[in-house]
């Protein structure tokens, strides 16, 4: 379906509103934060050559230890000299950080080993609060190309509680892993096509597990897995490069004044499916992560104002007060908006695009997503509320492997001094 340009005007109006209202207030509770600690870490080295793909899992990464409250997590790709690498050279498809418990007697393992953690029965995955299930979107933190320009700070007195000794099983210790998916597009015949993982550019007909691709599958994660390579311009040669994910974590020691937040990830491809087990029928969320956007007009591919709209509806079993919200989209994205059951806007996240060549301002790439910081107590999701996630993409040309993922930090209660 095509929409006229007034939809774009509306999107710009929403962006202005978000910029005016979406900045965190350090004095929201009458005092500045004290004793915030900060540390900068590097992931293990990843080697890439032009056109190659790395999709690596690293375990037992450097991370704050003890009973603390995480306040922010920021990351970017850097080279061996720790200079930022621009997206038009190495595209950061995504990074994500997940939590797990490991038996104390098990030797720590930091190297890449496929999906090892999912094969170890003695490891316990510690997922976020929902809504997707199984191995999908269970992380605590994660962004993509927008990582340099997206705020992640959680305002005082809220924080993400980790390292609580009362929650860690006896004989186990808390660990963290990172997944990094990067695509080297130096010399690529079609840089944007490589970042969207078009299968023909990767000459791929089978997925990473050796299974044939489903009929009609044009592109996405199943075509740009680890060790695949995107098509280069004829005759192009370039050197191998080493990159790292440099990540900065801020935290405070846990005390009774901190209000914990729950983390929710919502996926616009989410559909409910009925499964039957020994306990009887149950409803499960089937989050597919990615989808395709068809061109709205094969005869007019440039700037005709067409917008693809995709929606999903889910019930939030447990609600609370929204403290922070934001979205993740790929190039072509226009907006992600979460609506309440009564039609109110809970949060709208708008992508910003670069207009230069330097890292953080790469032309035609999403370099940031706006975030929501409502006055604590002003936006509440009630228990069982049905919410609708809407993802808008430009359909002036076709896109593959796009995403519409929304994340919320929700507090079940407010500080005692807060009144509404």
Automatic annotation (TrEMBL):
Keywords: Signal. Pfam families: SURNod19 (PF07712). The keyword S-adenosyl-L-methionine does not apply. InterPro entries: Stress_up-reg_Nod19. The keyword Transmembrane does not apply. Residues 1-28 form the signal peptide. This is Stress up-regulated Nod 19 protein. It comes from Crotalaria pallida (Smooth rattlebox).
